[in-house]
Design a protein that fits this description.
- The chain has about 260 residues and is an all-alpha fold.
- The protein is about 75% helix and about 0% strand.
- It has helices at about 5-25, 25-45, 50-55, 60-95, 95-100, 110-135, 145-175, 175-185, 185-190, 210, 215-230, 235-260.
- The model has no long low-confidence stretch (mean pLDDT about 85).
Length: about 260
């Protein structure tokens, strides 16, 4: 069998393996999914009225803050979900199954490709679930066109792909699952330091560059613009540039680490 059909066949097999693991052991995904859901409910129902004043929509109250916070929570959901990918990759490496795969007549890269595709699919499903929670508590996007919804979906998939490749690299360098979870923690913390909860210009001056010059903020502002009709400006191409850059970096890092012979 030639290289491309072999790669497709084996990657599909590894994808089914990872989805089967996720179905049999859903606790990790559910635990990670609880973080954005709890933050969404906490900030909307406990801090919503007060936080709406900070975004210049004091008259809108909690409803205005729901519209503001949901796009950020959706991207935070992706960051939370891919932590499970880092843990899964590290577990495969530490438990010896990868060493077994290396002795078999399968395409070498199919193992991590299966992890990446499976993680992106799980991220999309997680975003749908969290989005459903947002709609249930009052989020609406009535002005977005079909093209804008399609662009928003494309951005979410592209962002999930970028973070997944980074998470795979983190899993490959981690000696065990606990270390992988700790190494991937910035993927959960970075949204807290972005414009997900309050506008960047309301933050202290010394902190604004930290919030502005990171991948989550331009992606969040772009998603807000697509769903709510706010100004996107330069955030659109910045978000795409971050996604493409992180994807390439994560791919090169992951394939390099995976290609090294075990010590």
């Amino acid at each position: 069998m030639s290289s491309l059909p072999l790669a497709v066949r084996d990657s599909n097999t590894m994808l089914r393996r990872n989805l089967l693991h996720a179905r049999r052991y859903p606790s990790l995904t559910l635990n990670l999914l609880l973080t954005p859901v709890m933050l969404l409910l906490l900030f909307v129902y406990i801090f919503g009225d007060a936080m709406s004043a900070g975004i210049g929509s004091g008259d809108g109250g909690r409803a205005a803050y729901i519209a503001y916070i949901v796009p950020g929570i959706l991207l935070m959901t992706i960051g939370s979900t891919v932590v499970g990918t880092a843990v899964s990759v590290s577990t495969d490496m530490s438990e010896g199954i990868i060493a077994r795969f290396r002795t078999m007549a399968i395409h070498r890269g199919s193992v991590i490709i299966g992890h990446v595709i499976g993680s992106v699919l799980q991220s999309v499903m997680s975003v749908v679930l969290v989005g459903a929670v947002g709609v249930a508590i009052g989020f609406r996007s009535t002005d977005a066109t079909a093209l804008e919804w399609l662009a928003a979906f494309g951005l979410l998939v592209l962002f999930a792909t970028a973070l997944t490749w980074i998470a795979v690299g983190m899993g490959l360098i981690s000696p065990n699952a606990e270390a992988a979870s700790n190494n991937a923690m910035p993927l959960i913390l970075l949204p807290l330091l972005s414009s997900a909860f309050i506008p960047v210009d309301t933050m202290p001056g010394w902190f604004q560059p930290i919030a502005e010059y990171q991948p989550f903020t331009p992606a969040i502002e772009t998603l807000r613009g697509l769903l709510l009709g706010t100004e996107i400006g330069h955030n659109g191409w910045l978000a795409v540039a971050w996604c493409l850059g992180l994807t390439v970096l994560g791919y090169l890092w992951s394939t390099s680490k995976f290609g090294q012979d075990p010590k």
